[in-house]
Design brief:
The chain is α+β, with helices and mostly antiparallel strands and 226 residues long. It is 28% helix and 29% strand. The chain has a domain of 150 residues. The longest helix is centred in the middle third of the chain and has 18 residues.
């Protein structure tokens, strides 16, 4: 792999998740004691991909290498839950922590993908979704694609081109022990994104602002901060 490595030192990277995924354990309301909660969590783990990952690991990541401490479930979920077709720098077999240097970039990324999902479902553009910022510090060397030609296949705006090429690059980089990829945002000119391969690199995790994305009959949502 001929791509350069660059040090990324950022104290406030931004990942956005919908508030539907920002919740306590689904069975918490049923627990009346710590012992009961442990039993209910064991029951939940039968269908929770995140809990299964914490018990058995993820391809290339042993259970003990997953995140622990405050916010660990949100960190681990990023690596445990995958899409059947994968994403730009993550194949169907394993996930990564996608984030951006700025919240504007993160918002443009998620609004693009949710707009496409609404369109693919054949639904009207009449939707309101709230997103929670997950903030984290990152200090590590990353494969740096910021100097790459924008026409490179792995940076293609067409996911049919960009995803297979990006997944091939990411698989090679991960097998070589690289920490992840820093790359120009495909959805916001001038923005910068991160694909972090290892949970241990997510530091100083905390929650940030809440954003409302609202579609009112058109494919471009209005974005407001709650």
């Amino acid at each position: 792999m001929n791509h350069p490595l660059s040090r990324v030192s950022r104290s406030r990277t931004v990942r956005l998740i919908s508030n539907a995924n920002h919740k306590p354990p689904v069975l918490l309301a049923l627990a009346q004691s710590h012992g009961a909660l442990e039993k209910l969590e064991a029951l939940e783990s039968v269908t929770s991909q995140r809990q299964l990952a914490q018990q058995k690991g993820i391809p290339g990541i042993a259970p003990e290498a997953l995140a622990t401490g405050y916010g660990y479930s949100f960190v681990n979920a990023a690596f445990a839950y995958t899409r059947p077709q994968g994403n730009r720098f993550s194949p169907p077999q394993w996930g990564v922590w996608y984030s951006a240097f700025e919240h504007d970039t993160a918002l443009q990324e998620v609004s693009y993908h949710l707009t496409r999902a609404i369109e693919a479902a054949g639904a009207d553009f009449d939707n309101e979704t709230r997103y929670i910022e997950l903030l984290a510090d990152v200090e590590a060397d990353f494969v740096d694609l910021r100097g790459m030609d924008a026409a490179a296949p792995c940076l293609s705006a067409d996911t049919a081109i960009g995803y297979p090429a990006g997944q091939e690059l990411a698989t090679e980089a991960r097998m070589q022990g690289c920490n992840g990829i820093v790359y120009p945002s495909v959805r916001r000119a001038g923005g910068t994104c991160l694909a972090v391969f290892w949970p241990g690199l997510i530091q100083n995790f905390r929650q940030g602002a809440t954003w409302i994305l609202k579609w009112s009959g058109a494919p471009e949502p209005t974005i407001t901060r709650l």
